[in-house]
């Protein structure tokens, strides 16, 4: 068991309120005073979740986007957020960060309501947190509701952000759609709101298609077969479409597409790509071009 | 203008929603779906907000307490919180931190609902954030509502935590009520709920009596005279009661008593000590033993 798993065990012993959903979903669901609130909080740490050379406006955008993506996966409407901000000591950097944050918040109609700013000790890596609050507009899908026979869908291709990160690592000046996918992910709020009333289970693909599909299956007490890994034309243009490329794309994190389970007879109400199927049993099976392939040692990004 | 003031100016340009209260209060007030929510988020950074040698259980307690204190100042009932936690790399340290956090949350009936854990780069100072959500049970006092003629009160003596910090700095093994005041502040939730329907303005004393009284007066467009600095017997026992000690106590942070403005004719519904009076005009006047004394260069703890 990893250090993170052990701390999660300790946290679960504290977070016993039903609203915490056993800390096994990406969000909490708090019903209070007539409101049904979706709560999520994600941190980003320099050198862990972003590259120190990433443009500050993109880091700000991404902090907003990853939190909004958790709301999207529950079909929630953004109603407010709070920022925890570590001053950089460089005011133009701070201003650019806040400009990017504001772009993402404004674009998705998410009001910034407050938070805290702190000075860090000299040379400390900086960290940021955002707590996002949404309001449920109907049923709130969990990870755990998939049923045997359901199809598994994703709202777009996977792997772009992973290749974008590699390109950005190789050169801070890298640009183009793959780097954009890594730096400026688009939370699928519209799709999430349209999907939430129909899906049996939904989550965002933040840690890789294979890992997140396995998590949905595990939470639902089912087996899942992933039989298609959708690649974008931009990714195929730089990496081709080999089995190795497909597996790499299915293990890459940071895509923030929505992953959902839908009855086989139902057509998704939004553009989505079928990528697999749930069945009784347990575990993940990967098929590429019809043939079962061995699973990679690591299914995705187990981040700290 | 300090770097923090400049970033606050940038943040105010983004946080234009009325729920943000212009970022001039300690909390946001969000009305959604029939609920009236009080939102606050405070970070603690190693070496800035606590001493690296502080016991981890006390750091966990304090993170909960400082956020609960912001709810107390608005008379709010705790309904849920989200934790941002930087893994220390030392599991017994993490376990002790969470035990202290849980003690404070349980004691104040605040459910932990979720959050995020991150790994920090090696040797990075750690930081923690908590976002606390409360529900308003009646009127929600702001900092800005004091009126000319109001008396200024505080719910307990000031300066204990400041001396406790000095003692803890001198020796990590220091103990006793002053160190306890620094390490285990008690948010005044019961007092806040009883006071909220009656006060004209209320806030917690996190940065020192003088600075916070000046802020309340400034937000209310008034002048304030502080004419009494209440010291605890424990503080007088180690520091005496000289003018210098009184001024130091009035500049010390981390007390988390409630500071409030009440009409002169009204008796406070909780135990409280009158410490001053509001009048038309602006600025802060300090009187000790009846005589006006010059203000210290720094009124309190302008933390980052």
From TrEMBL, chains A, B:
<feature type="binding site">
    <location>
        <position position="206"/>
    </location>
    <ligand>
        <name>ATP</name>
    </ligand>
</feature>
<feature type="binding site">
    <location>
        <position position="26"/>
    </location>
    <ligand>
        <name>Mg(2+) 3</name>
    </ligand>
</feature>
<feature type="binding site">
    <location>
        <position position="42"/>
    </location>
    <ligand>
        <name>Mg(2+) 1</name>
    </ligand>
</feature>
<feature type="binding site">
    <location>
        <position position="301"/>
    </location>
    <ligand>
        <name>substrate</name>
    </ligand>
</feature>
<comment type="pathway">
    <text>Cofactor biosynthesis; thiamine diphosphate biosynthesis; thiamine diphosphate from thiamine phosphate: step 1/1.</text>
</comment>
<dbReference type="GO" id="GO:0005524">
    <property type="term" value="F:ATP binding"/>
</dbReference>
<feature type="domain" description="PurM-like N-terminal">
    <location>
        <begin position="25"/>
        <end position="135"/>
    </location>
</feature>
<feature type="binding site">
    <location>
        <position position="207"/>
    </location>
    <ligand>
        <name>Mg(2+) 5</name>
    </ligand>
</feature>
<dbReference type="Pfam" id="PF02769">
    <property type="entry name" value="AIRS_C"/>
</dbReference>
<feature type="domain" description="PurM-like C-terminal">
    <location>
        <begin position="147"/>
        <end position="232"/>
    </location>
</feature>
<dbReference type="GO" id="GO:0009030">
    <property type="term" value="F:thiamine-phosphate kinase activity"/>
</dbReference>
<dbReference type="InterPro" id="IPR006283">
    <property type="entry name" value="ThiL-like"/>
</dbReference>
<dbReference type="InterPro" id="IPR036676">
    <property type="entry name" value="PurM-like_C_sf"/>
</dbReference>
<feature type="binding site">
    <location>
        <position position="26"/>
    </location>
    <ligand>
        <name>Mg(2+) 4</name>
    </ligand>
</feature>
<feature type="binding site">
    <location>
        <position position="204"/>
    </location>
    <ligand>
        <name>Mg(2+) 3</name>
    </ligand>
</feature>
<keyword id="KW-0784">Thiamine biosynthesis</keyword>
<dbReference type="InterPro" id="IPR036921">
    <property type="entry name" value="PurM-like_N_sf"/>
</dbReference>
<keyword id="KW-0547">Nucleotide-binding</keyword>
<keyword id="KW-0479">Metal-binding</keyword>
<feature type="binding site">
    <location>
        <position position="42"/>
    </location>
    <ligand>
        <name>Mg(2+) 2</name>
    </ligand>
</feature>
<keyword id="KW-0067">ATP-binding</keyword>
<feature type="binding site">
    <location>
        <position position="116"/>
    </location>
    <ligand>
        <name>Mg(2+) 1</name>
    </ligand>
</feature>
<dbReference type="GO" id="GO:0009228">
    <property type="term" value="P:thiamine biosynthetic process"/>
</dbReference>
<dbReference type="GO" id="GO:0000287">
    <property type="term" value="F:magnesium ion binding"/>
</dbReference>
<feature type="binding site">
    <location>
        <begin position="115"/>
        <end position="116"/>
    </location>
    <ligand>
        <name>ATP</name>
    </ligand>
</feature>
<feature type="binding site">
    <location>
        <position position="49"/>
    </location>
    <ligand>
        <name>substrate</name>
    </ligand>
</feature>
<comment type="similarity">
    <text>Belongs to the thiamine-monophosphate kinase family.</text>
</comment>
<feature type="binding site">
    <location>
        <position position="41"/>
    </location>
    <ligand>
        <name>Mg(2+) 1</name>
    </ligand>
</feature>
<feature type="binding site">
    <location>
        <position position="143"/>
    </location>
    <ligand>
        <name>ATP</name>
    </ligand>
</feature>
<protein>
    <recommendedName>
        <fullName>Thiamine-monophosphate kinase</fullName>
        <ecNumber>2.7.4.16</ecNumber>
    </recommendedName>
</protein>
<feature type="binding site">
    <location>
        <position position="70"/>
    </location>
    <ligand>
        <name>Mg(2+) 3</name>
    </ligand>
</feature>
<comment type="function">
    <text>Catalyzes the ATP-dependent phosphorylation of thiamine-monophosphate (TMP) to form thiamine-pyrophosphate (TPP), the active form of vitamin B1.</text>
</comment>
<feature type="binding site">
    <location>
        <position position="70"/>
    </location>
    <ligand>
        <name>Mg(2+) 2</name>
    </ligand>
</feature>
<keyword id="KW-0808">Transferase</keyword>
<keyword id="KW-0418">Kinase</keyword>
<dbReference type="InterPro" id="IPR010918">
    <property type="entry name" value="PurM-like_C_dom"/>
</dbReference>
<dbReference type="Pfam" id="PF00586">
    <property type="entry name" value="AIRS"/>
</dbReference>
<feature type="binding site">
    <location>
        <position position="70"/>
    </location>
    <ligand>
        <name>Mg(2+) 4</name>
    </ligand>
</feature>
<keyword id="KW-0460">Magnesium</keyword>
<feature type="binding site">
    <location>
        <position position="40"/>
    </location>
    <ligand>
        <name>Mg(2+) 4</name>
    </ligand>
</feature>
<dbReference type="GO" id="GO:0009229">
    <property type="term" value="P:thiamine diphosphate biosynthetic process"/>
</dbReference>
<feature type="binding site">
    <location>
        <position position="254"/>
    </location>
    <ligand>
        <name>substrate</name>
    </ligand>
</feature>
């Amino acid at each position: 068991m990893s250090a993170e798993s052990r701390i999660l065990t300790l946290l679960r012993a504290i977070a016993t309120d039903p609203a915490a959903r056993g800390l096994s979903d990406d969000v909490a669901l708090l019903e209070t005073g007539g409101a049904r609130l979706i709560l999520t909080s994600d941190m980003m740490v320099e050198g862990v979740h972003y590259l120190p050379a990433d443009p500050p406006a993109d880091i700000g955008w991404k902090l907003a986007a990853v939190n909004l993506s958790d709301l999207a996966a529950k079909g929630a409407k953004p109603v407010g957020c709070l920022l925890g901000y570590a001053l950089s000591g460089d005011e133009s950097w701070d201003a650019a960060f806040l400009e990017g944050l504001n772009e993402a918040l404004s674009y998705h109609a998410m009001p910034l309501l407050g938070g805290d700013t702190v000075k860090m000790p000299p040379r400390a890596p900086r960290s940021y947190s955002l707590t996002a609050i949404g309001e449920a507009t109907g049923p709130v899908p969990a990870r755990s509701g998939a049923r045997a026979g359901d199809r598994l869908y994703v709202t777009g291709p996977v792997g772009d952000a992973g290749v974008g990160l590699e390109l950005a690592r190789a050169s801070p000046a890298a640009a183009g759609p793959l780097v954009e996918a890594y730096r400026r992910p688009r939370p699928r709020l519209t799709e999430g709101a349209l999907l939430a009333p129909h899906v049996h289970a939904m989550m965002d693909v933040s840690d890789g298609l294979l890992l997140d599909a396995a998590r949905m299956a595990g939470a639902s007490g089912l087996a899942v077969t992933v039989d298609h890994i959708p690649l974008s034309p931009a990714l195929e243009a730089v990496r081709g479409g080999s089995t190795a490329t497909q597996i790499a794309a299915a293990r890459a994190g940071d895509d923030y597409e929505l992953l959902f389970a839908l009855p086989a007879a139902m057509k998704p109400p939004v553009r989505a790509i079928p990528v697999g199927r749930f069945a009784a049993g347990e575990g993940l099976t990967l098929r590429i071009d019809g043939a079962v392939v061995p699973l990679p040692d690591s299914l995705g990004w187990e981040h700290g």
